[in-house]
Design brief:
The complex is a heterodimer of chains A (202) and B (1201). Chain A has 202 residues and is α+β, with helices and mostly antiparallel strands. Chain A has helices at residues 34-49, 92-110, 115-120, 122-132, 143-159, 167-170, 172-178, and strands at residues 11-18, 23-28, 58-60, 71-77, 80-86, 133-134, 137-138. Classes of the chains: A alpha+beta (202), B alpha+beta (1201).
Chain lengths: 202, 1201
Amino acid sequence: MPREAGPAKMIQAILVFNNHGKPRLVRFYQRFPEEIQQQIVRETFHLVLKRDDNICNFLEGGSLIGGADYKLIYRHYATLYFVFCVDSSESELGILDLIQVFVETLDKCFENVCELDLIFHMDKVHYILQEVVMGGMVLETNMNEIVAQIEAQNRLEKSEGGLSAAPARAVSAVKNINLPEIPRNINIGDLNIKVPNLSQFV
Amino acid sequence: MALKMVKGSIDRMFDKNLQDLVRGIRNHKEDEAKYISQCIDEIKQELKQDNIAVKANAVCKLTYLQMLGYDISWAAFNIIEVMSASKFTFKRVGYLAASQCFHEGTDVIMLTTNQIRKDLSSPSQYDTGVALTGLSCFVTPDLARDLANDIMTLMSHTKPYIRKKAVLIMYKVFLKYPESLRPAFPRLKEKLEDPDPGVQSAAVNVICELARRNPKNYLSLAPLFFKLMTSSTNNWVLIKIIKLFGALTPLEPRLGKKLIEPLTNLIHSTSAMSLLYECVNTVIAVLISLSSGMPNHSASIQLCVQKLRILIEDSDQNLKYLGLLAMSKILKTHPKSVQSHKDLILQCLDDKDESIRLRALDLLYGMVSKKNLMEIVKKLMTHVDKAEGTTYRDELLTKIIDICSQSNYQHITNFEWYISILVELTRLEGTRHGHLIAAQMLDVAIRVKAIRKFAVSQMSALLDSAHLVASSTQRNGICEVLYAAAWICGEFSEHLQEPQQTLEAMLRPKVTTLPGHIQAVYVQNVVKLYASILQQKEQAADTEAAQEVTQLLVERLPQFVQSADLEVQERASCILQLVKHVQKLQAKGVPVAEEVSALFAGELNPVAPKAQKKVPVPEGLDLDAWINEPPSDSESEDEKPKAIFHEEEPRHTRRRQPEEDEEELARRREARKQEQANNPFYIKSSPSPQKRYQDTPGVEHIPVVQIDLSVPLKVPGMPMSDQYVKLEEQRRHRQRMEKDKKRKKKEKGKRRHSSLPTESDEDIAPAQRVDIVTEEMPENALPSDEDDKDPNDPYRALDIDLDKPLADSEKLPVQKHRNAEAVKSPEKESVPTVEKKSKKPKKKEKKPKEREREKKKKDKKGEDLDFWLSTTPPPAAVPVPAPSTEELAVSTVTLVKDEGEGLRREELEDEDDNMDHDQERKSSRHKKKKHRKEKEERPRDKKKAKRKQAAPLENGAAEEEEPIPPMSSYCLLAENSYIKVTYDIQASLQKDSQVTVSVILENQSNSFLKNMELNVLDSLNTKMARPEGSTVHDGVPVPFQLPPGVSNEAQFVFTIQSIVMAQKLKGTLSFIAKDDEGATHEKLDFRLHFSCSSYLITTPCYSDAFAKLLESGDLNMNSIKVDGISMSFQNLLAKICFHHHFSVVERVDSCASMYSRSIQGHHVCLLVKKGESSVSVDGKCSDATLLSSLLEEMKTTLAQC
């Protein structure tokens, strides 16, 4: 008997996109084809975009993903929206705090995180997220523990020489001289995510 | 050409990394797609390289492209390659890519099984961690089945980092492979008390999620969770537990009572809003489950409502939102407490935040009463006008309808008002809910007879403005209301003022632009109208006018005949012919009105939607039986047109009553009349419109100002429905006056002073009433409201009883790579046992109090829970043992003694209890002496009864009274003064030539046993699997050591070629026994018996499949007979099931058919018959040798019975 891959996830999706709807992190815990994923990101973006910053951070997702049992819980930091799509088993305020934990962890790991960090290090952001949420379930909420694990893994990676230990690194200097496409000045305004201190929790 | 080659290899050196790719994309804003397709080509080149670093880099870039919406599933195989890289850096890249793009449909996913298994058992915790994380995203049923055991092992890993991940992923495994739940649950439960808070939190997380889906199976964990709740300080854990209690309390109200106090304490004490909020939520759930009055709970409700009010008044919009959300839960059971905050909620309707407005709307539903309905709806109507987004407006619309129609229009006092509200709603542009409005119009017009006249006048006005409705909003579905309008005007045409005008409106050419199903209704109802007009005209002897109408129809109907919609076309051409015929008759001067009206004679009665379903099927009527033999070939059934409104049903399903004799009918009619007379909601046949104001009993003599409804109520500049608010006020005022008068009269008689008249809800009598229930339901309807669970619910598979002891067949499939397993599993196997024993000395120091508590824990789960629940607050539960607990403990002691064998087995299977249980046993042993005498006096059967209760056995037993003696599949292998060895052979369906031998080694001496090694003399047919590189003469080391008094289990894999014969292998267990005096090398010889039964796997079989198997005739037959059997048939069968792995197919009296299957696919069928004191077994099997071997073995088993 084939078992359906029903909506089994407590956190169904985690989306990070900027004020223009450009995705910075797309993490679905239920299978959607890529084009649907993009569509969901777009729709979610339009939903949160029209909301003022001073109104509530919950949105009934409705038709988007999963149906009535699901809610969108989001926070807006500087240029980025962090959106979690969760079902009723999660505490709404708890998830808000989790987003805060995630962002503060990013802040620690990247040292004053800004949108550029997320743009160029999507893989690292994923690895950090993996220590917070696993398979749609909350794995760890203690920031010190999360950071410790990430640093340990970074050390391990360093000891192995890193991903770009390949020839690529050896010639990177040459590349930098020759390639015209290196952006001279990246102008995306003030990107620093200000992490407000509003933990109601822990 | 050469240049190109060179260029290519240089390019390779310039491979982009992720940052280069991102940068590149950002610099190619204008031709992004082109640039990316270039990059993908490059990536494809890179993936062809042998260098794993290059591949990993490529896969990393692909992951980025996936985020941008590019399908990267084509690289699945390369991703697997990167996953299997030895370096963590690359592995992580691979798993990340896999977690983003693998899913159940990915075909190469099965290639990953071994790689993942290898990573899971990697010595580096981060390799394991990465594999677990990845797997959590793409686990499939196959992966879950194959890896369940490995993951379960990881749940006891030494590193908490791995433990917590393993615990969490188990939830995914359960979902994909529900069979794993029971074997893994005991360990999962253990993790609730893990020393690491992260692991504990993960376990709480998983169990809460499981329990949320199937709460009843987890009730027995309530005491444990309660303990966690009162001891934990982790808010995450607390929130999860409190949420879980919210799900459990509806099943066990006593639990709720116990919870109230600690929860209210938390509410008072916590500063974390999230925790406060969840506490309030659960208190609400508790109070709902305790709905039957407990006076002191009103205080809790008040507390909750108060706290919620604080949340709602908070400036933080999030809290406001959640406050409203929770308030709506209270509303369902305690509407009064919420209603007092109406002001607050109405205020929220004006909030700038749509989410909050929607929540407030939800609350309104429960706040309306007869008194304030009009006022609230008026407010909502102004919101409808103001609303910008269609979503919110649609929501408002449905809410208005919900609010008004709830519980059979309970709160509506004036239906004219309601109809005009509905009509006003039709002016909404762009709504999707036209059909909702239409359904309401139909419902009201049909069920509220008194309103029909008014409804018809409104509907005809709607039809008249049809062009407005249709032209502007045709696409948006508001035109659906025309469906209702047309039908109402047609069906109740006798109430029409200007039928001719309406008829013309319905025949306008514009009508043909409406959707087909509406046109069809138009056509049908045109004829109804026509019939009533004819009647009128003929009565007035106005033949000319009558002919004109006919002419009109003949002229206009052809436009429908040309319709593309089949239904419209058919109806129109039918009717056109009819009208033409009428025309001919009219020309001859024949009166036709009577006959035409006869087409639509009879009144329509409302029928409740489920009425048909509730008529009980008369005895002897088989609805599934063919009335006539079905026609030989399939005549494709026409698809039924979809009913758009359920109100339409009455027309299709005129109820056919089973015929009753006259007397019975008369009796029922009488009974019904009686009932109707007593039913305030029933209106006796056709009251005149004026009469409804006089319905209130005893007021006939009071002069009433009549409202002439034929005069339109339009007041310039004011929407219609507002009029009614005023009128209604006047009406109520009148009513009040009347009542006051009455009261005064009465009071005069009684000489008492009147108090100030206060208007309560009940005092407001509705102006019109709804016909319901009595007429709409068949007389002998069955009260039923079964809404079956959705059979496709993925969580249904997880509805598994967890308290039942594990059966033999329920082990997780173990892939015996014995070596790897043995190396990494010491924690798994030995740790608990060591702990068990090492607790022994501590034990004795334990205070009697604690022992008492443990004793409580031990008795079967159900009792446990009862006991826990029955005691008042937790601290009070400790002192002085209740006599009943004492008794239970003693009887278990006897069990240990009488049925030591059985208990051993239980201990093995039932990890569930291992700690408590073991300690229990010891503590009770400790007590044994004291109670021995008492015990011996106790009748034996009582003990047995206890035993049965304690461990219900599966395998098709259960229904008979006689208890089944405990059985163990472990039999003695060898024993000496140092060690006792028992073993069991387990086969698995996945391996057709492999069995696992589980050997329990029990150290019986005071020495420390180590370097244990097991060796057997392989036969041609049966060989022990040894680690690679070792010869047949090398033994296989046992992966643990045994301190004194400890036992543990080791598993060995054997490969077998033929399974048709039983086989014995000679072997030796060698070990070093070390004690204070020194170490000695010891040996223990044994003979390992591979019975044929151990190759069988309990496989359920349905009787029809069984019959087919027997009929097939490919089976060999053999039989045995054993005399002198005293055991009951029930137990006998249980024994065969247990020892020989059969399952009962069917049992009739003292005869049963049984089935099993060998790992190599032989079918074995048995017919077991019991005589006076003998049993005969007839067997059929696809292999004769196997059958005779099996029967021989069975003979031995039976001989012992």
